[in-house]
UniProtKB/TrEMBL annotation:
Keyword annotations of the record: Cytoplasm, Methyltransferase, S-adenosyl-L-methionine, Transferase, tRNA processing
MF terms in GO: RNA binding; tRNA (5-carboxymethylaminomethyluridine(34)-2'-O)-methyltransferase activity; tRNA (cytidine(34)-2'-O)-methyltransferase activity
Enzyme class of the recorded protein, top EC level: transferase
Protein name listed in UniProt: Putative tRNA (cytidine(34)-2'-O)-methyltransferase
InterPro entries: Alpha/beta_knot_MTases, SpoU_MeTrfase, TrmL, tRNA_m1G_MTases_N
A single GO BP: wobble position ribose methylation
Known function: Could methylate the ribose at the nucleotide 34 wobble position in tRNA.
Family from the record: Belongs to the class IV-like SAM-binding methyltransferase superfamily. RNA methyltransferase TrmH family. TrmL subfamily.
Compartments where found: Cytoplasm
Annotated residues for binding of S-adenosyl-L-methionine: G99, M121, S136
Species of provenance: Prochlorococcus marinus subsp. pastoris (strain CCMP1986 / NIES-2087 / MED4)
Origin superkingdom: Bacteria
Length: 160
């Protein structure tokens, strides 16, 4: 399994995601342009001293990324009407793709992916002006939830 971030903007989120990837021993792909430099102090701080454990790959754009992953499923995550995470069945070599913190994944990237997943939120906002709900999860939280579910599924299959 791999985690891929499409044009991430917030270094602290990427640092936290890198730390989670290190903990689960999975590759983190960053698809440029990034909203920060890889030397950013906030990125490094969020990843703590685990950076030597992070398997990090950078791609100059989505096309280069997709071309390098031809035989793997790219699973996009969005709040835009995907299959709920709990109902999706992961494979060992899936690539989980997450969008920018401010705009998510654009439709052309979602359409270039093999599947679309949404994480269920019981208190979801029905519109941008809905004061009774939340529009989206923090990117690092969404990645953590997805990694855990995929890892749990894959390892329960391998245990059988």
């Amino acid at each position: 399994m791999e985690i891929s971030l499409f044009e991430p903007r917030i270094p602290q989120n990427t640092g936290s995601i890198a730390r989670t990837c290190a903990a689960f021993d999975i590759t983190l792909n960053l698809i440029e342009p990034l909203g920060f430099k890889l030397e950013d102090k906030y990125l490094k701080r969020a990843g703590l001293d685990y950076w030597p454990l992070v398997k990090l790959k950078n791609y100059s754009n989505f096309n280069n990324f997709k071309d390098s992953k031809k035989n793997k499923r790219i699973i996009a995550f969005s709040k835009k009407n995907g299959v709920y995470l709990k109902d999706f069945r992961f494979h060992e070599d899936d690539i989980l793709l997450f969008g920018r913190e401010d705009t998510g994944l654009p439709n052309n990237i979602i359409n270039a992916s093999n599947s679309l997943i949404s994480i269920f939120m019981p208190k979801v906002a029905l519109s941008n002006n809905d004061p009774k709900g939340v529009r989206s999860l923090n990117l690092s939280v969404a990645c953590g939830i997805a990694i855990y579910e995929a890892y749990k599924q894959i390892n329960s299959k391998n245990a059988n």
